[in-house]
Each structure stands twice: as structure tokens, then as C-alpha cells.
Amino acid sequence: MSDASRQHGHRAPQVIEPQGQVDSCVIWLHGLGADGSDFVPVVPALGLSAGHGVRFVFPHARELAVTVNGGMRMPAWYDILEMNLGRRVEESQLRESAAYVHALIEEQIAQGIESRRIILAGFSQGGAVVYEAALSCEKPLGGLLALSTYFATSATLQPSAANQGLAISVHHGTQDDVVPLSLGEAGAESARALGHPVEWQTWPMAHAVCLEEIEAIGEWFMAHLKG
């Protein structure tokens, strides 16, 4: 188990290494009730070039009691207190998860990866965590990918100057009945209001990912990690 995971009480992440030398990293967080293996099958579908050098790190959330699911314990980055449009969440737990992501970033830096060659990605709950983690991180990052998610801490974020203007790509399904499209749009607008260049893309899907989206994500990764 990695030091970061041990210190924060998480299982060691699932890691997919590239062929050849590693020169960059994507840390990708899953959604509620899933685990780090959820997005592993996406990696081959990204269409990355041979010798891309990107390490993929897929952390596992701890099991928490989730209020909106009747207090059932499941893998969760934070508790969701209400499923109304405002999505009232346990922000202290969300920030604990963001601190874990910061520790994973430091671990990659210690292994020789420059922080600007690290991208944070997250789906649904994981996306809410990486919004917080990326925009509060004291090390400059390479980008933020927010999938079918919302910016839960937009009103209380303490932004870091190191990531002022960080590039953000936001994707959302037009038929999403778990995280409404309006929540995704509001998150993107909040990020723009903070001065970030935000790419917004919608796809004809529910609360999921689709092949065309995955291919677009792969192109975005290469555009922001080239060189």
C-alpha cells in the first residue's frame, strides 16, 4: 500500500502503467458505490498514441454511511445529505477526500513526475472531489476533467493561486437523471467565474460515459500532456 493511502485510510489505488518511460499521470476518481476498477477498462479505449508515457492512478473511496441511501454503507467520497437540486453534502468529508488526492499528487511528484504533467479526473462524486482538489491544490497541475458531476464546494472553495486559469473539460449526459444537466452547467459556470477556461461538452446519454466521449477525452489528455 502507498504511504498516501495508508495515511488516509484508503486501499492502495489500482495503477495502470504505460509501456516505456512514465512522464505524466492521470489520477481518476470513481463515483458513488463503485471502486477504482470502474474506469480501468476505459484506458485502452482512449486511443492514446504508442509510447504515451501516461500512468493512470485509480483510487478507491472508503466505505461511508450515505444518508440519501438510507444510511447504507458503500464506497463514497463523502456523504450526500439531500438529493435536492442544491445537493447538500458533507463538505468536511469531501475535503478529506480532496486532501487524499493532494497526497497522491505529492506521491507522483516524489516519483519524478512534474506537477504540470498531472491531470485530475473524476466521475459524479469523484468529479465533485477533483473540482475541490484541483482548484485548491498548491502545486500547478496540467488540467481538470469533470464527468457527469457538479461543483459542490463552489461557494466555499479557497482557490489556490498555483492553479489560477487551470484548463477544465466538463462532460455531461443530456439524459442524466442522477446528476441533472443543470447542475453540470452550474458547475462549469462557477469555474468560469473563477477565471478558468472551461470546455463544455454534452452527450446523448444518461449517467454514464460513451465511446465517443472517451475518444474525445483521450484527445484532450494528449493535447494537455504533449511535450
UniProtKB/TrEMBL annotation:
Matches recorded under Pfam families: Abhydrolase_2
Q: Report whether Hydrolase shows up as a keyword of the record.
A: yes
Q: Which GO terms describe its molecular function?
A: hydrolase activity
Where does the Phospholipase/carboxylesterase/thioesterase domain start and stop, copy by copy?
A: 12-221
* Keywords for this protein: Hydrolase
Alphabetical list of InterPro entries matching this protein: AB_hydrolase_fold, LYPA1-2/EST-like, PLipase/COase/thioEstase
Q: Does the keyword Heme apply?
A: no
Family to which the UniProt record says this protein belongs: Belongs to the AB hydrolase superfamily. AB hydrolase 2 family.
Descriptive protein name: Carboxylesterase
